[in-house]
């Protein structure tokens, strides 16, 4: 537990707030409710928790609120925040010195442990023959690489994915194998090209992303895998939306229509989800609603066979997230907010990029609902989570929200956020 700073009698803000709250006989949830009533709009219990653990520090508007609630001078709260900030900085420096490893390196090494043990070209036997078991080994390896994307941005993974794709392509070019094995190899190349394309897209390298997606599309067709082909087209649709192209809906429709009758429900849910997004961002509310309904129905279908590993991340929460994002894009906050808040309540901060992105749509929906200060607080959280990410997308979304909040800069929380964003 932190103690008072020696010599000046000031407590760090977390310890001070915890002491004041406990002295008043309240839980964090009860304090959050009282503060909500005082300011006239909701404050989550999590906000109180983050203040007490120094995950977040109260901004000037929050300090004014806490001063009135506890009868403590604002200057005392300001000095307590300054001390907490100093302690956090010291702890961070000490951790960096002791570990000499950054967050990216640690997560990448942990998630990727064992990946380098097998090099694709080492799987060639004498006579350059590729056995029937090789695609399975490469598939497992690709699955491990894929899961890095849960924790780090495309700027960290892109070159790794490209090297893997190049090695597997060379293996397929130089090896000798049966037609069945060749079909499996082409499918793996399609998956790896999708990975490389996604990482390039996440890092803002749009032309490289397009090239990888086209490789994936050709390889998936050569492998006669309609699910992979659909996913390649869906990736192209997403890229079209990002660069402002006019073919997003066309690609997304083609992606869904290419699927066969035996396609796994999770794949149908994913591609219907992507179609809904294209319609929402094009302003087609009715079509988006229909596609979301298809995705919702598909994700609840029981399937005795597991879906492909490249769709492992698609679950009911992801469908709810996309539902909320679509309605946020369509400026329907009453439909967007419940879906986003419910799913995000189960999102861990280790998935910082995705959580930051999804929170940005929640902030947008709250702003549409007229909850300016709440939208501001959520945007601040987006900025927190975006720090140090090798992905351009969260910060782009944060900048968009800052721009939308500009007309409200006279409000203290908004003004503080704009100053923070400027710095």
Characteristics:
20 helices, elongated, 3 domains, 434 Repressor (Amino-terminal Domain), disordered N terminus, mainly alpha, 423 residues, Serine Threonine Protein Phosphatase 5, Tetratricopeptide repeat
Blueprint (SSEs and pairs):
Layout (H helix, E strand, L loop, with lengths): L12 H11 L4 H12 L5 H9 L6 H11 L3 H26 L3 H9 L22 H14 L6 H21 L4 H24 L3 H17 L3 H18 L4 H10 L7 H17 L3 H15 L16 H14 L3 H12 L7 H17 L3 H15 L6 H13 L6 H11 L1
Polypeptide structure, described:
The chain has 3 domains: about 15-100, 434 Repressor (Amino-terminal Domain); about 110-225; about 315-423, Alpha Horseshoe (Serine Threonine Protein Phosphatase 5, Tetratricopeptide repeat). With about 425 residues, it is mainly alpha-helical. It has 20 helices and no strands.
Explain briefly what this protein structure is.
The protein is mainly α. It is built from 20 helices and no strands.
Radius of gyration: 25 Å
Strand content: under 5%
Mean pLDDT: 88
User: What's the number of extended β-strand segments?
Assistant: 0
Biggest sheet statistics: none
Could you state the order of secondary-structure elements as H and E? Answer: HHHHHHHHHHHHHHHHHHHH
Unreliable spans are 1-8, 97-104, 110-114
Counted up, domains total 3
Question: Total number of helical segments?
Answer: 20
Helicity range: 55-70%
Give the class from helix and strand content and strand pairing.
Answer: mainly alpha
Straight-line N-to-C gap:
32 Å
Overall 3D shape: elongated
């Amino acid at each position: 537990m932190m103690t008072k700073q020696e010599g000046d009698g000031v407590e760090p803000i977390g310890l001070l707030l915890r002491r004041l709250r406990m002295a008043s006989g309240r839980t964090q949830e009860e304090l959050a409710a009282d503060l909500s009533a005082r300011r006239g709009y909701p404050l989550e219990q999590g906000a109180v928790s983050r203040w007490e653990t120094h995950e977040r520090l109260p901004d000037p508007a929050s300090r004014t609120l806490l001063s009135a609630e506890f009868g403590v001078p604002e200057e005392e709260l300001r000095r307590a925040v300054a001390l907490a900030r100093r302690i956090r900085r010291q702890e961070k420096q000490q951790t960096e010195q002791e570990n000499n490893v950054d967050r990216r390196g640690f997560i990448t090494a942990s998630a990727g442990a064992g990946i380098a043990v097998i090099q694709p070209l080492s799987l060639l036997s004498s006579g350059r023959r590729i056995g029937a078991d090789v695609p399975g080994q490469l598939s497992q390896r690709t699955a491990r690489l894929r899961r890095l994307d849960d924790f780090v941005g495309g700027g960290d993974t892109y070159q790794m994915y490209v090297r893997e794709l190049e090695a597997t392509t060379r293996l397929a070019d130089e090896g000798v194998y049966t037609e069945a094995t060749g079909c499996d190899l082409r499918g793996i190349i399609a998956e790896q090209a999708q990975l490389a394309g996604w990482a390039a897209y996440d890092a803002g390298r749009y032309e490289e992303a397009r090239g990888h997606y086209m490789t994936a599309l050709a390889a998936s067709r050569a492998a006669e895998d309609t699910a992979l082909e659909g996913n390649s087209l869906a990736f192209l649709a997403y890229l079209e939306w990002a660069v402002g192209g006019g073919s997003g809906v066309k690609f997304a429709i083609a992606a869904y229509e290419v699927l066969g009758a035996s396609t796994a429900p999770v794949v149908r849910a994913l591609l219907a989800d992507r179609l809904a997004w294209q319609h929402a961002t094009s302003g087609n509310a009715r079509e988006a609603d229909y596609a979301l309904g298809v995705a919702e129905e598909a994700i609840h279908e029981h399937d005795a066979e597991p879906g492909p590993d490249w769709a492992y991340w698609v679950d009911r929460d992801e469908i709810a997230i996309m539902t909320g994002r679509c309605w946020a894009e369509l400026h329907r906050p009453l439909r967007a907010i419940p879906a986003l808040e419910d799913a995000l309540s189960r999102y861990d901060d280790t998935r910082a990029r995705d959580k930051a992105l999804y929170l940005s749509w929640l902030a947008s929906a709250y702003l549409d609902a007229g909850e300016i200060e709440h939208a501001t607080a959520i945007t601040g959280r987006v900025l927190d989570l975006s720090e140090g990410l090798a992905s351009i997308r969260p910060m782009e979304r944060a900048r968009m929200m800052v721009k939308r909040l500009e007309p409200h800069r006279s409000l203290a929380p908004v003004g503080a956020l704009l100053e923070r964003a400027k710095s």
